[in-house]
Known about the structure:
The chain has helices at 35-38, 70-80, 89-96, 323-330, 336-354, 358-373, 380-396, 404-407; strands at 44-47, 50-53, 59-65, 98-106, 114-119, 124-132, 137-145, 153-162, 167-175, 181-190, 195-202, 207-216, 222-231, 236-245, 251-260, 265-274, 282-291, 296-305, 311-320.
Amino acid sequence: MLLYETSPLFKKYNNFILESGVERFSNIKLKELSLKEIDNIGTVVITNEGIKVNEVKGVKIEVFTEKEGSNNLREKLKNDRKISQKENRISELGYELAKYLIKIEIIESPSKSIRVINMADETKGIHLIVETAENVNASIIEEHYGKNGNNLLNVVINEIYVGKNANLSYTFINNINENSFILSQRKGFISNGAKLSMIEMHCGGRLDNNIFDAYLNGRDAFIENISFVLAKNNQRYNLTNNLHHVKGNTRSYASIKSVLLDKSKVVQKGIIKIYPNAKNSYGYLSEHAILFDDSWNDAIPSLEIDTNDVKATHSSYATKISEEQIFYLMSRGLTRQEAIKLIIYGFYHNLLYRIKDPLIKALVRIILEERYSNNRFIYPHEIQSILEEYIYEEKHEEEKEIDLFERHYKYR
Length: 412
């Protein structure tokens, strides 16, 4: 049984998670894709047949599985994790359902992105620990896919350690079908002069319950956290983004943008917490949403500041797109679907601009396109067949950054 949310601020929504039916998750195994069909796409590929690792120069990857003995795996989780088993309901479930512990140590800057691909074809827990050496530049893309299944539950626990003066781009993609569940807890620890760019895309699952905490533990550390959310039908998303300024001269930027259609529901929570020793820090947090049909959204950004000589701002809004606005675009020759798509992409535009890697930007665009326009969940090898075309477009498209809220005089 999945426990209720106990935060006092969230008590009025305490039926939000259980109404998705997540407490009735299933243990069956499905036939999605075989390892052979996608093992050449990812660096680490997980299906119910097992796990395949492809070597990358300068990167050390270790895998510990349940087959080696569930007690041994759980003992290793206790010793290696900073996220304790009893921290919350997600970590508790992740421990109980643990099937894989994957440790990725980035020693030198790799020449390509490290892709971790998980097929959500059975109920399982995945624990992923990433650690970078000093002064490296790297990109990790964590991808979750699934077209089939009913009541399958995947729990993902991440710990990310960014070494001194390192630059790590970490992308999380949830693209599992609407009849399954995904719960994820992620913590990032950022050292002196290091940067962590966290890109999240949430468009799959009947329930997506995600918690991300970033700890700026070194001076001149920087966290950038951008999230794309596209909810349809009866999907339920509960997203939390917490930014902890532990040391001084640190910066954080977080922007979560949600598009809600049909009868979907999204709750966005977040906090900028500036600790007593974190003078001269800067934090920015925005939670914005546009709503269609009978969808529902609540944004709860917060500030907690325990020192002086800092700057922290937050903003939130949720706006309903009216039929008149859609009709205006349709009067210019667009279909209704094209008009809504134009509004959605205009809403996401400034976040897409912030993604500098053409591969990541192409992945985000493809999955959003398939999810909205064709109402389907796409497989990794299907993405691969059109990826080069999108990457070419991204490399040759001239864009201008537009962020009216960030540029507003109140936030400068």
